[in-house]
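The pair is listed for reference:
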Amino acid sequence: MTSQSPASAGDLVVRIVRSAADDLDQTRAGMLEDVPDGLHQHRERVRRLRSVLAGFRDVLDEPAVERLRVLYAEWGRQLGVARDLEVLADAGEAELASRGIADGAAFERLVDRPRAEYARAHARLGELIDLRRARERDRLLRGFVLELRVDDPQAPADDLVSTVLRHEARRVLRAAKLLDGTDAPLHALRKAARRLRYVSEAIASAAPEVHPEQVATLADAGDAIHDRLGGHRDAVAFLAFVEREGVLAGRAGEPADVYGDIAHTVRAETGEKPPGVKKPLARIREARLALD
């Protein structure tokens, strides 16, 4: 173990949680200023914080962890309202641009209107972050990080890493067994894979010499599942949006052929079923066994 990797569980957890809190704080200004990708980056940091708190909850103050996770889940949902509108507008603009369309009724429906809704949702975020509840949320996080206590802090870091990653990997594999073609199990698997990815990446950054092969495998496989299912979810949401706007356009007497064309393209690219995740699941299973 080099000086770059923490020798104890206490050092490891402190490093991971403090880094997640710092990253969250550093992306707040960009989100509020609406710099390119600023909202997405801040929302991701919220998810990373919640993931590492959940991943290491067994050695932390669990009631405090749960309180923070609830508060930041609420903030994440508020960020998500604006982010979903941003994604819809970007997808609409890309599809229309590929057809040489940069204005007109379809552009207004698929780009201008969601962008206007996004602007209102983003302005609301600026209001929400100044509310007492938001200030209390940030105060609780700062206090938690400042007074961070870890159960059995002198335990070996690699033992804790093995325990945490085995648990997170099992969580993904259990979620995969519940897939039945409906949306709820897919959503659960996507969230479990996302947490596995973020926890693994946090460990890789804080302790690069602790189980590096297994940590990298779990991070990559979790990312693959999260990315594939997340992309599928976004495509399904965009498809529903396009089809709805196509119906409304037809009722308003506007040309509606482009909506059907876009829907056909998205449906063909997305497919009727979510993308396969058997290979990354197999890699997760193998890495988990290697940690036993």
Observations:
- The chain is about 80% helix and 0% strand.
- Residues 9-291 form one domain.
- The chain has one domain: 9-291.
